[in-house]
Design goal:
Elements lengths: L2 E4 L8 H11 L3 E3 L9 H7 L14 E4 L2 E4 L1 H12 L6 H25 L12 H29 L14 H16 L1 H7 L4 H11 L2 H7 L24
Parallel strand pairs: 1-2
Antiparallel strand pairs: 1-3, 3-4
Length: about 240
């Protein structure tokens, strides 16, 4: 089976968490919005308006698999984790991995809201004052809290601190890698100052980046660069630069 992934073709966004899982699993998939050399926004929008679908998705990412449409990033990763060994096989382990993935979802919302605190209907340039205030609180309070939480989870893992759940890679490890990579792009000054306090999280990022399938993906044209259109955006004023 070849999966169909529906996500906006010019940004990493939330779709990137799904792409990383598919790449690590070696799963066959089509990134529908990036068919050929174009950017097919229409094909992505179509899945949200498909006639006769009772369980219509609200927004991308959407994964089409076995004739069903699965949406919401954590929900897609729950599905892929079961199918491709990216989550523990026991119920307790799977629930713990999903719980952590939902924490990542909350973290990503907070990161996005540093540059859009008044919501996505306004451009960043229309809310710069509010964004500067929100980002300062994020850098000083929320970012250390989130990094500290995942550092704590790694330290407390009975199987060792190599992974967040058990003794093998899971979709949560891939997602935390993506968040750290994105934070290094969006808040380079803040991350340089904070990373020494969270060595396990940094080591996890590096461990994931070195995995053969992920390293090959990061070096390929399939990996969309970070830009000021996605979740992780580098605005110097939000990173505390003078």
């Amino acid at each position: 089976m070849t999966y169909q992934l529906y996500y906006w073709p010019t940004i990493q966004g939330r779709g990137e968490f799904v792409r990383l899982a598919l790449e690590e699993a070696g799963a066959a998939y089509e990134d529908v919005g990036r068919r050929g050399d174009g950017a097919d926004f229409g094909a992505v929008a179509e899945v949200l308006e498909r006639a006769g679908v009772a369980e219509v998705p609200f927004a991308p990412p959407v994964l089409e698999a076995d004739g069903r449409l699965i949406s919401q990033t954590a929900n897609i990763l729950l599905y892929l984790g079961r199918r491709h060994g990216l989550a523990p096989s026991d119920e307790a382990g799977e629930l713990w991995a999903n719980q952590l993935q939902l924490c990542v979802t909350d973290w990503v919302v907070e990161i996005h809201d540093t540059h859009h605190p008044l919501g996505p209907s306004l451009y960043y340039e229309e809310q710069t004052a509010e964004a500067a205030r929100r980002a300062a609180v994020f850098r000083q309070d929320r970012l250390p809290k989130w990094l500290g939480y995942f550092e704590q989870v790694l330290a407390a893992n009975p199987a060792g601190d190599a992974y967040l759940v058990g003794d093998a890679l899971s979709h949560v490890d891939l997602s935390v890698f993506q968040v750290v990579a994105g934070l290094r792009y969006a808040f380079p000054r803040a991350m340089v100052a904070l990373e020494p306090d969270y060595p396990r999280v940094v080591a996890l990022h590096d461990r994931v980046a070195a995995r053969p399938a992920i390293a090959a993906y990061l070096d390929s044209s399939r990996r969309i660069p970070f830009t000021e259109e996605g979740i992780f955006r580098h605005y110097p004023a939000l990173d505390g630069e003078p």
